[in-house]
Amino acid sequence: MKYFLNNILNPKQKQRNWFNNNYFYATTLFMIGVLCLCFFVFESQIDAIVNENIKLNLLLTWLRHSNIGHLIGNLISFVVVSVFLERHFGSIKYLGLILLGVIPSHLATFAFEEGWGGRGFSCINYYLYAIMFIVMIFNFKDYFIGKFRWIFPVIMIGLIILIMSWAGETQPFSEFFRFSFVKDFYINKGHWPSFIIGIIMGLFANLYHFDIKKKKGST
To answer: Which of 12, 15, 24, 121 could hold 142 in an S-S bridge, CB 3.0 to 4.6 Å?
Structure first.
């Protein structure tokens, strides 16, 4: 197990402490609990708040789901990317990363769609997908160079591409493995503004981190 964690899952030479440690996917489990609680217990209260002031959807739309199928799909999509990102950032930093993306990703989506309907938690998922890709690019040596290290990121990339090219309820499940990348990516165009926000956030975080390491190395 130690070999598997250190040579396949964990980034190389990561100095772990209380702030960046992965507490057995605590943030992932916490977010699943929050989303389920909001759907099964507080759905009517959240809808009432948004109906009174539609602009509050900017803060609450990520907690809303149209039906249980939508909830399950979003949870699966979230778990897939979280398996990578929470282990990379650590539970506390990952929770902060998710919360930081709520307003910018939905604001970008609302601006793109010229309305306040929102795309729900899938906006957060696309935001996280972009960050995952940026992390992999900036940490290519850590995640891809080595006998078995490439296995984990390649599996993650494959799963994320499958999710991103899935058109949800607009496409029958029987067509899942016969999708057209161009067509289905276009169908999901409403999610791309939040993906772009994820790229910006990921670039900022990684460039800043790289600059800090560079300064430390020069002193």
So the answer is: 12
Q: What is the pLDDT of residues 70-122, one digit of tens each?
A: 899 899 999 999 999 998 889 999 999 999 999 999 888 888 776 655 668 98
Architecture label for domain 2-9+19-218: Up-down Bundle (1.20)
Q: Looking at the whole model, is its pTM more than 0.90?
A: no
Q: From CA 128, how far away is CA 66, in angstroms rounded?
A: 21
Residues in the chain: 219
What secondary structure letter does DSSP report for 74? Answer: H
Q: Which long-range contacts (CB under 8 A, 24 or more apart) does 187-190 make?
A: 188/164, 190/109, 190/112, 190/113, 190/119
Contact 122, 75 (CB under 8 A): no
* Burial call 137-158: b when 16+ CB within 10 Å, e when fewer: ebbeebbeeeeebeebbeebee
CA separation for the pair 25, 86 (Å, rounded) = 6
